Amino acid sequence: MSASELATQVGLLSIVTMWFALVLRARPALRQPHQRGLWLTVLAAAIAITLFQPEVVGRLTHAGVELHTVALTRNLIGVLSAGLVLLFMVDSTRVRRLRLTVAAGLTTVMGALLALDLLQADHPRESVTSVQGPADPAFSYWLILIVAHLVGDAVALVVCWSYSLRTGDRDLVWSLRLFAAGSVLALVFWCGYLWHLYGGSSAVLPYLSLIIGVHGCIRAASLLVPTATALVRSWSALRVTWRLWPLWRDLVLAVPQVALSSPQRTRLQEVLRPRSPLALQAHRQTIETYDALLDLQRFVQPGAYEEAHRHARRAGVPDHRLAAAALAGTLGQARRAKLVGAAPSVPRPLPGVEHGSPATLLGIARMWPSMTDALPWQDERVDAVAPTHRE
Fold it and tell me: Which of 293, 367, 373 is nearest to 323 (CA)?
């Protein structure tokens, strides 16, 4: 695969990714002031990168849009993106004068580009032949254009990285560092673009397109960090709900007073039709399982844990799962004892479950299907009658 073909594919991927991220994050980002600036910055960058792709430019010119118009629009929106980056950075300082200075500088730069474009009458628009070149070949024009980008990306790199070292918010840390990484690629791109315009070979353009495409993907990733975190949390909650369900169902059926609502008929229904958000449901099931476990400690028989441990070892349970298997067998026996109406006794605390950690409960749930009936339970009424039969 040639550099041009790879750049084309990465460019398409960056466009799709950025617009997907913008649409997905539009509603939550625009509602939160600290994310609004980032969203607007990525929006301007998405438009500029879209207009940088040769295929997009070709379709626009085929539709009757002048190449000069496309290039000028791309340049102005690119500068706007750099200015929005600066505004996004200085907005956290809450210094009104600094924000006004950046806004005035951005307006001046965009006005200068428009003025220079209008004043270059000796360069007809038809002379702009490169779909990725500047709207105007004049030295002052592209120098202002590139310097504006270099300043914006350099400041973004320094500020984002320094802020990421000070905050404890993991989402913000990743967003800032990804944004800083995108700024590094943007700096490389504009330095290479400056070299190309100053007299370098046009063979560098595919590689620059590849760099700006990767830059777009990273910009989109910085915007999608909260969404990715939410998906990871949902997946974790779904995993806990799915794996804990058989143990939770059996225990709360034996100790129904600990449950806010009774289990649904199947585990699939519990996952596909949750009666509360997944994170809340996983948290609730964890607490209810632990509460039921505490109640069933009143029905644990003397020596049950040791007997279950020996049974699990004889059954070939790996050493790292022996404790969980022994707990599962002990709880299975205690559960059956309560269900048949055995009289409770003094609670016998089970080892390793003092704090009811989710990892411990999930370990018990893993061994529950194979160990729940491992220890036999004989009704005390049968024991009372047995001597008569023997006589």
Answer: 367
Buried b or exposed e, range 16-44, using 16+ CB within 10 angstroms? ebbbebbeebeeebeeeeebebbbbbbbb
Please report which confidence band the pLDDT of residue 262 belongs to, taking 50, 70 and 90 as the band edges. Answer: confident
Q: Are 212 and 192 in contact (CB under 8 A)?
A: no
How does the average pLDDT of the chain come out, rounded?
Answer: 84
Of 258, 262, 310, 260, which is closest to residue 289 (Cα–Cα)? Answer: 258
267 pLDDT higher than 70: yes
Mean pLDDT of 61-72: 84
| Pair of tokens at residue 31 | 């509602």
Answer for the pair 183, 156: CB distance below 8 angstroms, yes or no. yes
3-state helix, strand, coil in the chain (%, to 5): 80, 0, 20
> How far apart are the C-alpha atoms of 183 and 52, rounded to whole Å?
17
Is the whole model's pTM more than 0.85, yes or no? no
- pLDDT tens profile 239-254: 999 999 999 999 999 9
CA distance 83 to 81: 5
Q: Rounded CA gap, 300 and 337, in Å?
A: 8
